[in-house]
Specification:
alpha+beta, two-stranded antiparallel ribbon, 12 strands
């Protein structure tokens, strides 16, 4: 089986600030479905941003859907949106050494919420965060030996501005010199590129449709923020940036961003020993390892960033998403008479859901709250024993052991014994 050693994309980055990055336009690449058209050839005159409001008159249905998503509301000003602060700030807590008046912006609402204080023209993270799932306060401070950028900054949160460390992914067209974006949140132009020319003279030739990009470029639209990595030559403008400065849709992400390295067998701050991410913001790091990525599947085959009624903005309910391509006895599997024969769990049970075995919740977002992996690998109990990576069997059957799970897998005659139970 081929090794996944150093599965980072090994980008050669030439990071530059957004105001001076040299455009290297993306050429079409060959893939299973043939070549897709390249993005429109942007010129300096077309590189102006308009803001998402400019998209509303022509795309009102998409705009209205997007406006209610977490993408559109990840960063909010509590002065404009008093409901943005989730916890009751009137209740004392020893971790909370700040008040509402100190909060210039709030970040997040699904798993955790953090709070930014403005000092001069910079924003800084306050020292407590709200665990939305557990409804408790937790300290917020990135320790030594964690993220790669820690040695570049002071140890106090007030020495770690959010501009270099957060804001480029929580805004559109963040300018590293003026420390201002075109707009906060993941607006239309984050995924479609600069849109002022398109807004004034709508045409398919002056805007990017990510759905028409080749799979690498299409996935990079999401990977630019949903990944752990670094520019190749920090610092930029005197700072170490934790996002791909200078990148915009239509350029090659590999020219700006290097996914975090991993050596097979090592457990690190970012990775389990087998290369799977074990912290949040690793969806891209996971997905580039997946067979589906190599076959040309894109994030938008499963997710719709404009918003849906399904969790995680899925285009359908979770297992229905998988059934777009996978079906019992189908040409790409699972190779079993029925889905239940493949999962060895009853219809309607959690164990019969594709995501619960192939996308277990093993990647930490805050405290003991985890999000789903995106390698789509079935982690066996033997992998857990060897690499200390959690497996889905014990996650559900929490009162059992890896030895028990291995014994259960031994009766799965539809699967290779070499794959599912080589231990003990």
């Amino acid at each position: 089986m081929p090794s996944r050693r150093h599965i980072s994309l090994v980008f050669v980055a030439v990071a530059a600030c957004s105001a001076s990055a040299k455009p290297v336009e993306h050429a079409p690449e060959r893939h299973a479905g043939g070549a897709r058209p390249a993005p429109p050839p942007y010129t300096p005159a077309t590189l102006a941003y308009a803001g998402s409001e400019a998209c509303k008159p022509c795309h009102s249905a998409l705009y209205d859907r997007w406006k209610t998503t977490r993408m559109a509301n990840v960063v909010r000003d509590p002065k404009l949106h008093p409901d943005a602060i989730i916890p009751d700030m009137t209740k004392p807590d020893p971790l909370v050494t700040f008040g509402v008046a100190d909060i210039a912006l709030v970040y997040g609402s699904r798993w955790k919420q953090r709070y930014f204080k403005r000092i001069g023209d910079d924003l800084f993270p306050l020292p407590a965060q709200w665990d939305v799932t557990r409804q408790v306060w937790k300290a917020y401070h990135v320790p030594d030996g964690a993220d790669w950028w820690v040695p570049f900054y002071g140890k106090d949160n007030m020495e770690r501005p959010t501009g270099p460390l957060c804001d480029g992914c929580h805004s559109v067209n963040y300018d590293v010199r003026t420390k201002t974006p075109t707009e906060w949140n993941v607006g239309c132009e984050k995924c479609h590129g600069p849109g002022a020319s398109h807004a004034s003279a709508p045409s398919a030739t002056n805007i990017i449709d990510p759905g028409k990009l080749d799979p690498v470029a299409a996935n990079d639209v999401c990977i630019q923020c949903h990944s752990q990595g670094r520019p190749s030559t920090p610092p930029i403008e005197g700072n170490a940036f934790d996002w791909p400065v200078g990148f915009r849709v239509g350029l090659r992400l590999r020219d700006f961003w290097h996914l975090e390295d991993h050596t097979l067998g090592e457990t690190t701050f970012t990775h389990f020993a087998d290369g799977t991410g074990h912290k949040n913001r690793m969806q891209g790091n996971d997905f580039v390892q997946a067979l589906m990525y190599r076959r040309g599947v894109t994030c938008s085959n499963c997710h719709d960033a404009h918003g849906t009624d399904n969790p995680a903005m899925l285009v359908m309910k979770s297992s229905e998403v998988c059934f777009q391509c996978h079906d019992a006895a189908g040409p790409i599997g699972p190779r079993a008479a029925t889905i239940e024969a493949h999962t060895h769990h009853k219809a309607g049970s959690p164990g019969n859901e594709c995501v619960n075995c192939h996308m277990p919740k093993i990647e930490q977002t805050i405290g003991d709250v985890n999000v789903r992996s995106h390698t789509f690998t079935f982690v066996t109990p033997s992998m857990s024993e060897r690499s200390k990576i959690p497996n889905a069997c014990i996650a559900c059957h929490s009162d059992k052991t890896n030895a028990w799970a291995t014994s259960a897998l031994r009766v799965w005659t539809t699967e290779s014994p070499r794959r599912v139970w080589p231990w003990p």
